[in-house]
């Protein structure tokens, strides 16, 4: 499987935002994340890091 878990940075900590993400769609100043279960979340953030071997997407809010 190629999906990854998305984590939101809160200070130095990573908080799980959405599991099993298979699509990330940038739209204006936000990201739309969709997972294999059909869940969709929208967040005003940018991708800080993609760790593909670890299946992790690290997000950081735009307002920081």
Could you characterize the architecture of this molecule?
The protein is an all-beta fold and 64 residues long. The chain has no helices and 6 strands. Strands 4-3-2-1-6-5 form a 6-stranded mixed sheet, with no helix packed on it. The chain starts with a strand and ends with a strand. The mean pLDDT is 95. Pfam families: CooT. It comes from Formimonas warabiya.
List the helices and strands and how they pair.
Layout lengths: L3 E7 L2 E15 L2 E6 L4 E4 L1 E7 L4 E6 L3
Parallel strand pairs: 1-6
Antiparallel strand pairs: 1-2, 2-3, 3-4, 5-6
Q: SSE order in H/E notation?
A: EEEEEE
**Low-pLDDT stretches:** none
Report the helical percentage. Answer: under 10%
**Spatial strand sequence of the major β-sheet:** 4-3-2-1-6-5
The N- to C-terminal Cα distance equals 33 Å
Using the alpha-carbon principal axes, give the shape.
Answer: globular
Strand content range: over 45%
Return the domain count.
1
Radius of gyration: 11 Å
How many helical stretches? 0
- Mean pLDDT across every amino acid position: 95
The biggest beta sheet, please? 6 strands, mixed
Structural class: mainly beta
Number of strands: 6
């Amino acid at each position: 499987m190629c999906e990854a878990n998305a984590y939101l940075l809160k200070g130095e900590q990573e908080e799980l935002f959405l599991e099993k993400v298979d699509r990330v769609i940038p739209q204006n100043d936000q990201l739309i994340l969709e997972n294999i279960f059909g869940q969709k979340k929208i967040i005003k953030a940018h991708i800080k890091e993609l760790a593909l071997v670890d299946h992790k997407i690290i997000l950081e809010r735009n307002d920081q």
